[in-house]
Write a structure and sequence with these properties.
With 253 residues, this protein is α/β, with parallel strands linked by helices. It is 34% helix and 25% strand. The chain has a single domain, classed as Carbamate kinase (3-Layer(aba) Sandwich), CATH 3.40.1160.10.
Length: 253
C-alpha cells in the first residue's frame, strides 16, 4: 500500500520529534514524503531583510522571496528530513518539484506574486525511485511554463501527488492528534462539514488548508485521507479520517 505523507514544516526544528517520526516511517512501508518549511523560509527572509507577508494563508512571494523558498526547501530543509530518515534506516532521496518534470504550476494570483497552483503532475521519477527501494522526499516548488519558479503550498502539492500516483492513503502529519472539535480529536469528519466548519471559524489557518486539501484528495480518487500525529504511520485508526459520506457526528454549532 503506497501512501503519501505531508510533513508539517513547524515540526522540523524539533529534533526529537523528527527522529521519532522517522522511526515511524521506517515501519510504514512504501511512502512518498512531501515537506513544508514555512518557518525556515520566514527566518531566512527576515535575515535578508525581505518582507514577510501572508494573505489568506498564502505567502506573498516576490521573485527574491521565491529564490529563498527554493534555496531553503531544496537545501537545508530537505537535508534535515533526509538526514533524519537515513539515521532511522530509511533510504531517502531528496527531490524537488522541478526534478524529472514532477510538478508544473501556473501563477495563482498576480497580487500574490510567484505563488503557484499545480496544473499537472508527472510521477515517473517517484515511481522509479520507489521501485528501486528509495523513499522520495519532495520539496514543493514547481516551475511555471515560462520557466519562473513558483512557491507551491505543501498541502496542495501532497494532494496533487497522491492523486497522480495514485496513492492508497494521504496522511497530513504534524504535532496534533487530529481535527479537534469540542475539545476532542474527531475520529471521522464528513467532507460536507469542511466548509461549514471553516465558515463558522471552528477551524482556521493551517488546519483549514489541510481540510480543504483533504477534501480535494478524496474528490480526486484518493480512497483514504487522515489528519493527525506521527502515530498515523503505524496505527490505522489514529488521527481524523475524512469521509466522503455523511455520518452521525457531533459537530459544534
Amino acid at each position: 500500500m503506497l501512501r503519501v505523507v505531508k510533513l508539517g514544516g513547524n515540526e522540523l526544528d524539533r529534533a526529537g520529534w523528527l527522529e521519532a517520526w522517522a522511526r515511524e516511517v521506517a515501519q510504514a512501508g512504501p511512502v512518498v514524503i512531501v515537506h513544508g518549511g514555512g518557518r525556515a523560509i520566514s527566518a531566512l527572509s527576515g535575515r535578508l531583510g525581505l518582507p514577510i507577508v501572508q494573505r489568506d494563508g498564502l505567502r506573498v512571494t516576490s521573485p527574491e522571496v521565491a529564490e529563498v523558498v527554493e534555496m531553503v526547501l531544496a537545501g537545508p530543509v530537505s537535508r534535515v528530513v533526509v538526514g533524519a530518515l537515513s539515521r532511522a534506516g530509511v533510504d531517502a532521496v531528496g527531490v524537488s518539484g522541478i526534478d524529472g518534470g514532477l510538478l508544473v504550476a501556473e501563477r495563482y494570483d498576480q497580487n500574490l506574486g510567484e505563488v503557484g497552483r499545480i496544473t499537472s503532475v508527472h510521477p515517473a521519477l517517484l515511481t522509479a525511485l520507489l521501485a528501486a527501494g528509495f523513499t522520495p522526499v519532495v520539496a514543493p516548488m514547481a516551475p511555471a511554463p515560462d520557466g519562473s519558479m513558483m512557491n507551491v503550498n505543501a498541502d496542495d502539492a501532497a494532494t496533487a501527488i497522491a492523486t497522480a500516483l495514485p496513492a492508497s492513503e494521504l496522511l497530513f502529519v504534524s504535532d496534533v492528534p487530529g481535527v479537534v472539535l469540542q475539545g476532542v480529536a474527531a475520529a471521522e469528519l464528513p467532507v460536507a462539514e469542511v466548509e461549514p466548519l471553516i465558515g463558522r471559524g471552528v477551524v482556521t489557518g493551517g488546519m483549514a488548508a489541510k481540510l480543504r486539501a483533504a477534501a480535494t484528495a478524496l474528490a480526486g480518487g484518493v480512497s483514504r485521507v487522515r489528519i493527525g500525529g506521527r502515530e498515523m504511520l503505524t496505527a490505522p485508526a489514529a488521527g481524523t479520517r475524512l469521509v466522503a459520506t455523511t455520518v452521525n457526528a457531533a459537530l459544534p454549532a
